[in-house]
Amino acid sequence: MLAPMLTLYHCHNARSFRALWALEEMGLPYALHVLPFPPRKRHEGMHDLNPLGTIPVLFDDDLRLTESVAIPHYLATKYGPTDLAVAPHENGYAAYLNFLVMGEATLTFPQTIHLRYAVFARPEERRPEIARDYAEWFGSRLRNAETMMGPHYAAADRFTMADISVGYALMLALSVGLEEFVSDTMRAYFARLEQRPAFRRAIAAQGKPA
Fold it and tell me: Where are the domains of the chain?
């Protein structure tokens, strides 16, 4: 089987880090383009790569994926077999899918709205009360998610792409001033994840922020 022709467009520590981390966990060869943030405003031709103007964008030959939790699952199921995905016949399959999506839809989404009104908006358009509401929304959902997780990992009692999804949400929270909402248990969970060699290689591959 020929090696895949994978190309990832990424911004430093953005959602696309999930895809970069997954590529490193899989040990797949890839080309990486690290773009300035926000790419839709600072990278010419971004809308040609992705009409949404967002990252990640992963090309697998002529196939394009743009969702940060779909890409890890795609890589695991297309280029496996690998224990990084949970198969339908396994007991942890439902939890795996649930946490795979939850990491973005439930845990990362409110953080992005918090950042919109606390950081990215022009000073006169910032709304600290809205930013705080979404920060607390994130915190309440993280507390509830914690009660659903296994003792060591999100699902199937092993590291999977679902941990990449949830782990990135924690990585973001700990880097944007939302530490108060991350419990000691979840901090310890993320500390285990960031010791993984593939995580460290992904950090090194993206380099310093543009």
Answer: 6-82+198-206, 93-196
